[in-house]
Amino acid sequence: MPLKSVDLIYLDPPFQSNRDYNGIYKDETGRPLPDQIEAFCDTWTLNEESERAARTMPVLMREAGVDDEIAEFWRLWMNALRKTNPKLLAYLVYMTQRLLPMRGLLKPTGSIYLHCDPTASHYIKVMMDAIFGHGNFLNDISWCYKSGGVSKRWFAKKHDSILLYARSKGNHVFHPVKIKSYGQSGGGQGGKVKYYKDSKGTYSVVNARDWWEISMLSTTHSERLGYATQKPMPLLKRIIQASSNPGDVVFDPFCGCATTIEAAHKLGRKWIGCDIAIHAIKRVASVRLRDRLGLQEGVDFKVEGVPRNMEGARDLWERDKYHFQKWAVEQVDGFVTAKRGSDGGIDGRIYFDLHGVKDLQSMVLEVKGGSSVGIGVVRDLRGVLERETAQMAGLIVMDDLGERKTRNFAKEMAMAGDLNVMGVAYPRMQMLTAREIFDGKRFLTPSVAKARGLAQPSLPLG
Fold this sequence. Notes:
By secondary structure, the chain is of the alpha/beta class. It is built from 13 helices and 19 strands. The strands form 5 sheets. It has a 7-stranded mixed β-sheet, with helices on both faces. Strands 13-14-15-16-19 form a 5-stranded mixed β-sheet, sandwiched between helices. Helix 3 (86-105) runs parallel beside helix 4. The longest helix is centred in the first third of the chain and has 20 residues, at 86-105. The model is unreliable at 18-30, 36-42 and 448-462 (pLDDT under 50).
């Protein structure tokens, strides 16, 4: 993205709350899947990668134009946290790596809103002061809500913090937002105050303060998309109206289920969203833009970074093998079940319904590189199939294996037998290449065959 190209940034990153957020997906029958599938993780560890990033952070700060004194402060602070709170250090490294480039993206008239919670908001504010400048701090907004339970051990935690910074205070865009203030004390000082009445009572119209009472989305709200950290539309509309003009560019670097994008579009702004989860972009955000806004991918907006051909697939494999695995699993209508670095031979699953069987059944999936894949992979996957008591197993490989190797793989897979469902035999083990996936081929399971109108699956070679 070009420098100084964005008018407003809103980000709602994972909080340092030490929780695993799991997306609960439903298959075509509408029933919840047997497992909770990882959508994204909000737990942090100081591993070798984050340690290396922490050590190089002063260099990155200087390259981004941050004062040397701040870089030195980071070094001292990080040394202290490395011993006292390494998980927090890992989280701050993660956030600072992303905040530094955002500084360069903002126009001189731009602003940034960072959504966080009290667990780490004070640490994040120190880093925001360092990166965007203490003098450019505008507000620490408290978003207050009443939903959820209460505690008998402390006051109920019913607010998030939203830190607001200008890129250049005094040059930034800001429009006071008018809200209703109920009761007789909301008129402010000076002048006559007009009062109105509606179903909730008597109110006046005032400028919004730095505490916002906006209801959290209930589980049954019409906006709810099943995304764990989804924020309400009025919250994003208020932010966009206050700190941008029609036609401005709004950027959400953790766009998730695209609430910011929808709000920006409805308010006549241009928008850019990105997310680390392909699931969020392809299955949630793109669908939301189509269904709620009537936008068509390729016409009204474009999606970049998701492989569309073999060149893109190889590029993703070389840059990040874990995200290639996620992409491959989701392309074949599967769900990612493995965390980075630990899959136990299973990268994902495809769930399907068997006639007369109460619980959903599954095909375990494994993703491998390509031409270097040997027959041992098939044998290992067969062992996983038997060990997991799954009904089927699917192997996805990057490159075509050649006729001879493909034939040997097919013979080995055939030894696992067939799954017979209502007179139709489905090979229990199947294989797809990335090229075949681009051509529209999919693993054949009872649900897939039914959905695609197939009476009999194709048999593998051999």
